[in-house]
Amino acid sequence: MITTNSADSLVRTCSLGNGFQLPAEQAWRMLKVFHAYQLVLSSAFFALFVSHTGPSIFGQSNPNLFHAASLSYLALTVFSTVFIRKPYIAYARQVQFKIISDIE
Length: 104
Fold this sequence. Notes:
Layout: E1 10-12, E2 21-23, H1 24-51, H2 63-85, H3 91-103
Antiparallel strand pairs: 1-2
Helix pairs in contact: 1-2, 1-3, 2-3
């Protein structure tokens, strides 16, 4: 498990970036806020599509594709909850996973 309890510890935000660093507590808090946003958004997309109460544009041209994509987005977000709560994976890797899953 990765420890980030030290008040002086800095976290490198992106392994591909120019070396920008944040205090560990702030970095993890920002990641948790972004994760909450993803959780709400993915749940809303899936729930609105399944309940047929959302806008008609959800899955209009290919309902099976939208169903699979919204379910995958929800599953990836729920799966990443484990790693947000207990940081077994380094911060930069989790940010990369979040970006990739958000692009999906």
